[in-house]
Amino acid sequence: MVTRLAQARAAAAAVEDPEIPVLTIEDLGILRNVRLDGDTVEVTITPTYSGCPAMNVIAWEIEAALSRAGFPRTVVRSVLSPAWTTDWMSEDGRRKLRDYGIAPPDPSAHPACPQCGSKNTELISAFGSTACKALHRCLACREPFDAFKCH
Ligand SMILES: [Zn+2]
Questions:
Q1: Which secondary-structure segment (H or E) carries 32?
Q2: What is the distance in A from the centroid of ligand 1 to the CA of 29?
Q3: What separation in Å is there between the alpha carbon of 5 and the centre of ligand 1?
Q4: Which of 11, 16, 47, 120 could connect to 139 by a Cys-Cys bridge, CB 3.0–4.6 Å?
Q5: What is the pLDDT of residue 50?
């Protein structure tokens, strides 16, 4: 039997990141906890970036997903400590990012090109298509690509 809590957790875990739709908030590692308090679902998330505008969207998406799953009352709490790090991103999430053409977080200054795998890459702009990504270019295949910022 699937418990109400398991249903709520599954609905929250399936919420996609608005900026990178191939990743769920579980892939990103920002979904910290889901609990039931009577009729109310309490979802705890840790934002990837403080001030990342996507976080408001994510909170709204979580409420909408739980409402669709039959949970009319949801409280989304942000917990800033401990701070999210790119280490929390799942292996599955990293693979999905690469398949999507975005270099997964890499602590070195030269993330591998998601197209050809070359580490011979350069930073073009610290600001990619969104605040959470930086724009790089691969010197091997000449393709520009977004890289998830590491911190
Ligand atoms: Zn390349």
A1: strand 31-37
A2: 27
A3: 44
A4: 120
A5: 55
CATH 3.30.300.130 in the chain, residue ranges: 4-78
Q: Which CATH number fits domain 4-78: 3.30.300.130, 3.30.360.10, 3.90.10.10, 3.40.1700.10?
A: 3.30.300.130
- Report the pLDDT averaged over residues 130-141: 88
Residue 102: strand pairing partners: 146
Give the distance (Å) from ligand 1 centre to CA of residue 20: 21
Instruction: Using the mean position of ligand 1's atoms as its centre, give its distance from the Cα of residue 150 in Å.
Output: 20
Q: Angle at which helices 4-13 and 54-68 pack, to 10 degrees?
A: 140
CA of 86 to the centre of ligand 1 (A): 22
Two tokens, residue 88: 């929390």
Name 101's bridge partners: none
Using the mean position of ligand 1's atoms as its centre, give its distance from the Cα of residue 112 in Å. Answer: 8
- Rounded to 5°, angle at Cα 49 from 130 and 10: 95
Tens digits of per-residue pLDDT, 60-98? 999 999 999 999 999 999 998 898 888 899 999 999 999
**Ligand 1 centroid – CA 122 distance (Å):** 11
Query: The tokens of 119 are what?
Result: 């580490």
